[in-house]
Amino acid sequence: MKKKNLIIFGTRPEAIKMAPLVKLFLENSDKFETKVCITAQHREMLDQVLDFYNIIPDYDLDLMKPNQNLYTLTSDIITELKPVLEDFNPDYVYVHGDTTTTMSASIAAFYSGAKICHVEAGLRTFNKRSPFPEEINRSITGRISDYHFAPTLTSKQNLLNENIQESNILVTGNTVIDALDYSSAIVNSEEYSDQEIEDLKSVVDASKRLILVTGHRRENHGEGFINICLALKQIAQNHEDVQIIYPVHLNPNVQKPVYELLSNQDNIKLVNPLSYPAFVWLMNKSHIIITDSGGVQEEAPSLGKPVLVMRNTTERPEAVEAGTVLLVGTNADKIISETERLLSNKKNYDTMSKLHNPYGDGKACQRIVDFILNKSHE
């Protein structure tokens, strides 16, 4: 009898990292019955990823509301998942990472009696306020989960330190590398056609070195984003041979300082948030990436791109230790000096760009499928 999988996610980063796992489980339909449930904690950006991967959800909770908050979102997810779990009655529920969807879905799945499988398990900063609320989301999910798919040995050790049984932990690498390999092959092929990428080609100045910037973290709102913008403006003014492209997050706390401080600089281009394939294309074209995103810290080293991380803490210390990323926080002087170092010193740049990516070989999803297959035969 086939085991039932329910894969739950709600945001674009989750969708990107879970999509290759969904595809692989569906390819093994002789062994598993697999269904997808989305909370739509993010709506438009989530739908873009589903379209790219040609994934049609079996359950769409459509929970995104204007001005939603953590209180209502958490309770809505738990409540709305109850009939889904009762209808499908899954053996295994898969959640990813550290979102409010992840934490809430793990609680709902626990109530239903399903085995909870946590993809990208064991990441920790050991500071419950940074990142907020993600650190607590993943810690709670870790306490509830039955099986833990840790991307690295460091993540595994964090789980062992929390008295998780070793036989229930599997080091897989990160599924984002599986996703990046799949999507890069598509967007870089001659047959692929995408209007958003075509529009970007008219924005990118091929004669300049491209710095790609992303920023959205809640803990950087306010003074942090003002410092980030002042640093980017100074870098642009210092280097006419550099072009900064910044897809600006829709959050007003990001939009306001970014457009007020950066919109009048010729070699800074502020663009709308990008779909996943367009962002992958732009990462491939970039020289340096400056970000506060967790996923980009994992993806960019696979593309040979140095990453400066605008955070004071990271749950991805492996990249810092490997030297593929560098923490610069939101200190304007630090952002400027480390960017200057990469722009002016080829040796420094080459060292950072050619290091080994600590996040895997693109076979994480296959390891997860094999693990669950073995567990289901026990």
From TrEMBL:
Q: Which UniProt keywords apply?
A: Isomerase
State the family named in the UniProt similarity comment for this chain: Belongs to the UDP-N-acetylglucosamine 2-epimerase family.
What InterPro entries does this protein map onto?
A: UDP_GlcNAc_Epimerase_2_dom (IPR003331), WecB-like (IPR029767)
Name of the featured protein: UDP-N-acetylglucosamine 2-epimerase (non-hydrolyzing)
Origin superkingdom = Bacteria
| One term of GO molecular function | UDP-N-acetylglucosamine 2-epimerase activity
Tell me the ranges covered by the UDP-N-acetylglucosamine 2-epimerase domain, including all copies: 26-372
Q: Please indicate if the UniProt record lists Isomerase as a keyword.
A: yes
**Matches recorded under Pfam families:** Epimerase_2
Chain segments annotated as transmembrane: none
Isomerase as a keyword of this entry, yes or no, is yes
Enzyme class (EC, first level): isomerase
Which EC number(s) does the record attach to this protein? 5.1.3.14
Q: What organism is the protein native to?
A: Winogradskyella arenosi
